[in-house]
Amino acid sequence: MFSAATRDSIKFALAATSAILLALSFGWDKPYWAAVVVIVLATTESQSQALYKGWNRMAGTLAGIGIAFLLVDQLGQEPLLFLTVLTLLSGVLVYLAGCPNYGYAFQMTLVLTTLVAAMGQFDDALTFHMAITRLEENILGIVMFSLVYALLWPESASQRFFRQIESVADALQRQVCNLRQNQQVDINSLHRVEASLKPLTAQLSLPLGTSYALKYRPQHWQQSVTALLAMTKALMAPALSVTPTEQETATLDKMDNTLVRLKAIARARGIPEAVPAPTPDELPVPATPLTPLAEANRSLQLAYRETDIAMGLAPSDQQRPRPAWPRINLKVNAAQRLHQAVTMMAIMVVAMGLWTWLPVPGGSLFPILVISLGSVLVTFPLKMNNVAFWGVTLFAIPALLQFVFLLPGLTEAWQLGGFYFTNLFLVWRLFPGPKGLLLRLLGAQLMIIMTMGAMQLTPRYDVTQSLTMMVLVWLVILVVRIVMQLLPPPVSSKS
Known about the structure:
Number of helices: 18
Order of helices and strands: HHHHHHHHHHHHHHHHHH
Largest sheet: none
Shape: globular
Radius of gyration: 25 Å
Number of strands: 0
Strand content: under 5%
Mean pLDDT: 83
């Protein structure tokens, strides 16, 4: 009835709106925090990945609250020393945020430390109240996300995985058909296939819930995905011939038949009984370098064989791995992470100098935005600062216009819910897919933050606060851009 993008948009908008309305009904101070949790979780590839990220968020929240209590208690009367420690802490946590398994937990630790300490205004009682409120909102956001995504068009990790495999096999089959008709392959289509395959390996390393088809032999599913990636790269080779010989035509026919079977496996969700077929022959060891087409065929046949092994149709030569507790990896991309940590500390020094010596409006809001935005932007290439600037401008203006002219006339809870559902649905639906991820994240968060005055227990329609927020975001992006230009990344870490 609805496309996958439309279903995802409805689920996201419903979960975020429900979190806002429930928080208001409970009498909580900051309902928009619960909505932000839903936004972050909805940007993940699958529900299992979202729940894993939710646990990381909770761990980071608890750690950040603990560190904020410690800093306020010990350094509450020493502002210069407090800012110095916070600057050093930002560098350490940005470095740890590069950890593949727990990076998001460390990022949330940094944000929550700043948020709780700053909004608590160095008062013990107020800091404790802010910490409890944040914890409540996080739990509500995770619960609402889990309920809506589990009850409305539920999609398990297995269903999403095989849906993507089916789409990939279909796209690759079209490219094989082009070659059979003496036509060029579509490079843009192959790049989209590559972008679809890359997240699947990480998805298979996360908790898979009740997806027995994937849990049985996950290492072979990973090897199958890796082989499909190798096939995709081989098809993008410049030396690929568009006038196949008779032998190459036979190879293309074989590849077409293999892709047909992979699509059947994906439609059957990996159930062996639904796709009975003989296992593939052993792959020969090439004596000479293969042509791009031969390499693509070899990779595809390897994916075919690994898929049969993963489904249990052929014996595995690997022991079934025990679930291992993920470790904190301090050495992966160490040079790049160290550069990001140093850049973040430099951003903190410049921003806190501006905040201390210039009349920056917004009070403690500026340091919170520096940490929240800066810790994310330093992990992206410099050009993403332009995307962030124009994204903020693009989404903030319509949000402000609605805040001034539309929201004051909405007096009922269902009207407020309808407003947020409509806007969040449109943001999520207009920017689907991996390429629209950053725009979805920016658009949804700005819609929530720019109109947060309407979500207070006693609504306040003061446009000054929203305008101040927008100006401060622009200022933070400017500071980040200047520092990143002065501290370019090492050559080996450039993308």
